[in-house]
């Protein structure tokens, strides 16, 4: 009498390294979609080492990110970056996503694929973080302040803790010197709440910023 066993009993699990190699060849939109397959896939794709490998491989294929605003909508496109010095080849731009903007204010330099921009909704200015590659976006939570102030917020990346963070600086509305009063930080993927930090150095928030090795200039 023959006894039949399920095929799964004879199969061996796929090594994590091989899973990484397969997933690293996929576009970012597929990676974001596969996170909802199961808890196991979500944990694998959310690991820090996988994120670093994906960003390293993506940096070998540099892309130029293009954005434009039309009819209260913010569009994102990308095109391969070339090393041509004397001529510009004609390449088609890939469309990624669009976002509704009530009153678009400004956009900051992208950091590792994430883009931060400001929008005016009603009487309030809001800050939005989006990932054009995956099509995901979210609005930052409201920050509590001691009084009515103006607000400037900036996106940065902490290479030590390997986390994206937003620095918010407040200063009195209509102030002549524009020196910031409060400094708060929000860690993306964290508790979702702002935390106050102490800074004894006076700052005048601007809108032309760049993040280099975890430092905002």
From TrEMBL:
Instruction: State the Pfam families in the record.
Output: F-box, FBA_3
Q: Which residues form the F-box domain?
A: 14-54
* Origin: domain of life: Eukaryota
Matches recorded under InterPro entries: F-box-assoc_dom_typ3, F-box-assoc_interact_dom, F-box-like_dom_sf, F-box_dom
Name of the molecule in the record = F-box protein DOR-like
Q: Which organism is it from?
A: Camelina sativa (False flax)
């Amino acid at each position: 009498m023959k006894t039949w066993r399920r095929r799964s009993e004879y199969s061996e699990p796929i090594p994590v390294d091989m899973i990484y190699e397969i997933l690293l060849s996929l576009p970012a939109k597929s990676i974001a979609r596969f996170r909802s397959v199961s808890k196991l896939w979500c944990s694998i794709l959310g690991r820090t080492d996988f994120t670093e490998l994906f960003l390293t491989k993506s940096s070998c294929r540099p892309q130029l990110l293009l954005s434009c605003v039309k009819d209260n909508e913010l569009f994102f496109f990308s095109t391969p970056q070339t090393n041509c010095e004397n001529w510009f080849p004609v390449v088609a731009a890939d469309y990624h996503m669009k976002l509704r903007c009530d009153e678009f204010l400004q956009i900051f330099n992208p950091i590792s694929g994430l883009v931060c921009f400001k929008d005016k909704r009603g009487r309030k200015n809001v800050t939005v973080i989006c990932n054009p590659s995956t099509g995901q976006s979210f609005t930052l939570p409201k920050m509590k302040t001691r009084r009515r102030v103006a607000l400037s917020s900036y996106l940065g990346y902490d290479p030590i803790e390997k986390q994206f963070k937003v620095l918010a600086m407040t200063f009195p509305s209509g102030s002549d010197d524009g020196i910031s009063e409060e400094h708060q930080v929000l860690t993306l993927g964290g508790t979702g709440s702002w935390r106050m930090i102490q800074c004894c150095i006076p700052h005048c928030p601007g809108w032309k910023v760049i993040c280099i090795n975890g430092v905002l200039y």
